[in-house]
């Protein structure tokens, strides 16, 4: 059975706080566990007036991933949402996580080719729409020290 996956990036809305992120993740874990969705949510705190950015991987049955994606993309707690990559894989990257959360420390992402620039307009214009977009899955897994993809 193949598993659908989707990775998007977005910018957090003004007022986003650790408490709001914790609420989102708590609700997500309940919904995702009930709908066979696994994945990771990475929050990169902003600099220079940016609130921060999200990168999220959702994986599961394709109809479930699509309907959850619609709900998430309609959520006003983030904006400038861009789907980087989606498709089918043989197995899940994060089978044990109904939604893992990580907040990246600035020093952790300083040298990271994609994450360091997540909040820049240039990233949205060039990387998010360019051919590099489909390289984010291995990057996310690397960031979580997950087992390499087949
Ligand atoms: C960055 C971000 C990631 C989210 N991820 C999930 C998720 O993985 N699962 C989930 O059920 N809700 C997630 N949500 C919350 C949904 O957008 C939405 O609030 C939830 O589905 C409840 O919708 P409702 O209030 O219309 O019932 C996320 C929200 C944000 C802002």
From TrEMBL:
GO terms for molecular function: blue light photoreceptor activity; FAD binding. Gene3D superfamilies: 3.30.70.100. It holds the Pfam family BLUF. PROSITE patterns: BLUF. Residues 3-100 form the BLUF domain. SMART domains: BLUF. This is BLUF domain-containing protein. It comes from Roseibium aggregatum.
């Amino acid at each position: 059975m193949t598993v659908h996956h989707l990775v998007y990036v977005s910018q957090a809305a003004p007022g986003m706080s650790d408490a709001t992120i914790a609420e989102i993740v708590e609700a997500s874990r309940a919904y995702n566990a009930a709908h066979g969705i696994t994945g990771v949510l990475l929050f990169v705190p902003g600099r220079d007036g940016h609130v921060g950015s999200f990168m999220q991987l959702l994986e599961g049955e394709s109809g479930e991933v699509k309907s959850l994606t619609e709900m998430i993309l309609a959520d006003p707690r983030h904006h400038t949402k861009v789907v980087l990559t989606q498709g089918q894989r043989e197995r899940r990257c994060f089978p044990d996580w109904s939604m893992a959360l990580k907040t990246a420390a600035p020093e952790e992402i300083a040298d990271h080719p994609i994450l360091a620039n997540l909040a820049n307009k240039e990233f949205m214009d060039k990387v998010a729409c360019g051919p590099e977009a489909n390289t984010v899955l291995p990057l996310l897994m690397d960031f979580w020290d997950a087992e390499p993809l087949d």
